[in-house]
Amino acid sequence: MEKEIKFLATPEKGEVSALLMRPDGAKLLLVLGHGAGADMRSASMQKIAEALARQQIATLRYNFPFKENGRGGVDSPKVATATVRAAVAEARRLEPKMTLLAGGHSFGGRMTTTAQSELPLGGVKGLVLFSFPLHAPNQPGDSRAEHLGAIEIPMLFLTGTRDALNDLTLFRPVIKKLGNTATLHTIETGDHSYKTLKKTRSSPEDVFDEMARVTADWIRESLS
Q: What global pTM score does this model have?
C-alpha cells in the first residue's frame, strides 16, 4: 500500500525521499510537504495519509532537502518551492491519470502556496493546507498570508482552534477577503499538531478522520 521512492529536489541539493500511499479505487492524489520540525514519516503526516487513504485519496509525502540530509535549519524559500515543484512533477509522472492536488502541514503547506502564487503548479487543481502557519508562535500577524491573493485555484485550510501559529481572529478576515477561492474548517480544541482537549472537545470523531472527511467533501464540492 505504501511505496518509497526518490526524486531530484534540485540539482544542488540532490535527491529526496517520498512515500506513495495509493488505496484501491483512488482517483485523487494529494502531494504533501511536511512541517519545519518534522519529516515525511512524522506521526502527524502518517496519520493524515492513512485517514485520507480511508477516503480513497492517495498521497505522495516527501522530504525537503534539509530533513533528507539531516541538517539544521529549514531550506530557503527558493529551495523549498523548487522541491514542491519537483514533487508535483514526480506525482504527475507516477500517476498521470489521477486528479492532482498539493499542500502540506505547516511549513510544507506555506511553501506550496508560495510556489503556487509565484507560478501555478502544473496540473494541480486545488490546495489542502494543514495547520497553515500564519505567524510565528504567539506572535500574531498576517503578513505570511499576503501571497494567497495571487492564487486562483481552490484552497482548503484545516486549522485547530488552539493553534499558536494561527490566530483565528486574524485568519478569518483573510479567508473572507479571499472569497470563494478559500475554505476554512476549524478543528475544535486542536493545536498546531492536532492534539485536542478530550474533556472539552464535543465531537467524538477522530481528528484525522474529521480532516479527511472534510477534505473529501470539499473536493466533491469545489473540484467537481
A: 0.96
Whether residue 186 contacts residue 202, with contact meaning beta carbons closer than 8 Å, is answered with no
Kindly write down the DSSP assignment for every residue of the chain, as one continuous string. Answer: -EEEEEEEEETTTEEEEEEEE--TT--EEEEEEPPTT--TTSHHHHHHHHHHHHTTEEEEEE--HHHHTT-SSPPPHHHHHHHHHHHHHHHHHH-TTSEEEEEEETHHHHHHHHHHHHSPPTTEEEEEEES---SSTT----GGGGGGGG--S-EEEEEETT-TT--HHHHHHHHHHHGGGEEEEEETT--TT----TTT----S-HHHHHHHHHHHHHHHH--
What is the predicted pLDDT for the residue at 1? 74
Give the Cβ contact number of residue 105 at 10 Å: 27
Single out the residue of 105, 108, 127, 103 nearest to residue 192, CA to CA: 105
Sign of CA dihedral 217, 22, 187, 203: positive
148-171 tens-digit pLDDT: 999 999 999 999 999 999 999 999
What does the pLDDT look like over 34-72, one tens digit per residue? 999 999 999 999 999 999 999 999 999 999 999 999 877
Query: Binning pLDDT at 50, 70 and 90, where does residue 224 land?
Result: confident
2-222: CATH topology? Rossmann fold (3.40.50)
Backbone angles phi, psi at 192, to 5 degrees: -65, -30
